[in-house]
Amino acid sequence: MSNSNLKAERLPPLRDTSYLLLAAIAILAVVFHLGPAVIAGVFSYTIIDVTHRKLATRMRPLSAKWLSLIIFTVAASLLAWIFGRFLHQSLTIIPNTFKQAIPRLHEVSLHYGLELPFGDTDELRQTIIEVFKKNTHNITRVGGVLTKLFFHVIVGIFIAAMCFMSGSREDYGPNLYDALRKELNEQIWKFMQSFERVLGAQVIISAINTFLTTIFLLVCDFPHMAFLVPATFFLGVLPVVGNLLSNTIIVCTALTISPRHAAFALCFLVIIHKGEYFLNSRIIGSSIHAPMWQTLLGILIGEVIMGVPGIILAPAIMYYIRQEMREIPYAGVCAAHQPI
User: Fold this and answer.
1) Interval 79-99: pLDDT, tens
2) For residue 47, what are the CA distances in angstroms to 18, 40, 151, 192?
3) 252: how many CB neighbours lie within 10 A of its CB?
4) How far apart are CA 277 and CA 265, in angstroms?
C-alpha cells in the first residue's frame, strides 16, 4: 500500500470534521457573546437569498443578485431611518408629557399616602441628575455594551452581504483544504435552509402578534397607528432586537398619552411575549416537524445559553441536527420502539 493511501486512511472523515468545526464555531459564538452578530448575518443572508431566488426567475442571475442586495439595503436603511425619526419625536414629546403627568402623580400619592421623591418638574430633574451621578459607571457600561452590540450587528450584516456577493463558485481543488471547505459549506447551507424554514414560521408569529397588538392599540386609542402597526410586524420578524424595539416604541408612545397607558402597555407586552414562548413552540414545531415539548425545551435552553439570539437559533439548530441524524443509517434501532 502506498504512502498516499496510508495518509488518506489516517485522515478523519470530512463530514465528522465539518461537524466539529460547526460545533467549535457555535462554542466560540457563545463564549465571546457573538449571538447578535450570528443572528444578524444569518437573517440578512436569508432575506437577500430569498429575494434573489424570486428575482432570478425573471432576470439574469447577476442582475438579480445586485438588485436583491440593493432592495435589502434600501429596506433596512428606510426602517432604521423611520425608527430614528419616531424615536426623536418621542423624546421631544416625553418631557411635555412628564410636565402634565407630575401633578396627577402628586394627587395620586397624596390620596394613597405615598411620598414621591419629587414634587414638581425641577425636583424631578434634580432627582434624575442625582441618579445619573450615582450610577455613572453602570450607565457607561450599558452604553458600551449597546455600542458593541450595534457594531456586532453591522459586522454580521456586512459579512452576510459579502458572502452572498461572493457567489457559490465551484472552484474546489483536489486537496484536503478545498474538500473540507466544500463539506463545511454544504453543512452551513443545510443550516441556512433550516433557518429559512424557521423564519417563515416567525413571519406567521409576527403577524399574530401584530394582530393582537393592533387590537390593544385601537382599544387604548393610541396615536401614530399608521407607524406602530407596520413597525410591530416588521420588527417582530427581526431575530435580534425586534421585540425589544417594538416594545420600546409602544411604551414610549404610551408615555406621550399618560403614565397609566404606559403601565397598561408594559403589562400587555409582558403578558403577550411570555405567551409567545408557547406560540413559538407550537407554530415553529409544526414547521420543523418536532413535538411541542421538544421545541419549547430547545427555546428555553437556547435562551439560557445565548439569550434572545438563542431563542431564534434553537429551532433551526434542532431541525438541522434532526435532519442530519436521519441521514445517518443505524441498524441497532429496535423496531418495537416508537419514534420520538
Assistant:
1) 778 767 766 765 665 566 566
2) 25, 11, 20, 11
3) 19
4) 19
